[in-house]
Design goal:
Length: 97
């Protein structure tokens, strides 16, 4: 870290009433968590992970992962047009009795 980054760290640590090392550990944990979430979303987008597996990898709930996906513009439902049409038809037949 350069001197400017250390000064920034010290200022923030003072504001938060933490030691420099406590703040650095907290920032590192948060950074790793964010990076894991980003990596999980990328693997989900490439269909290497299910939403559930992405959530597990990132250490968050499925709901949180779905919210992260939505916030990133990534759809969390993967249904083809044919599946949607089939489901619509089933719902129509069901509603008619």
């Amino acid at each position: 870290m350069d001197d400017e980054e250390i000064e920034d760290l010290d200022e923030l640590a003072e504001e938060m009433r933490l030691s420099r090392s406590e703040l650095a550990r907290s920032a590192l944990r948060e950074g790793v968590r964010r990076l894991r979430a980003e990596k999980a979303l990328a693997r989900y987008l490439k269909q290497e992970f299910t939403l559930s597996r992405a959530a597990s990898y990132a250490g968050v709930t499925i709901r949180e992962m779905a919210e992260l996906a939505a916030a990133s513009g990534i759809p969390f439902f993967r249904a083809s047009v044919d599946e949607l049409r089939r489901d619509r038809e089933r719902a129509r037949r069901w509603s008619q009795g």
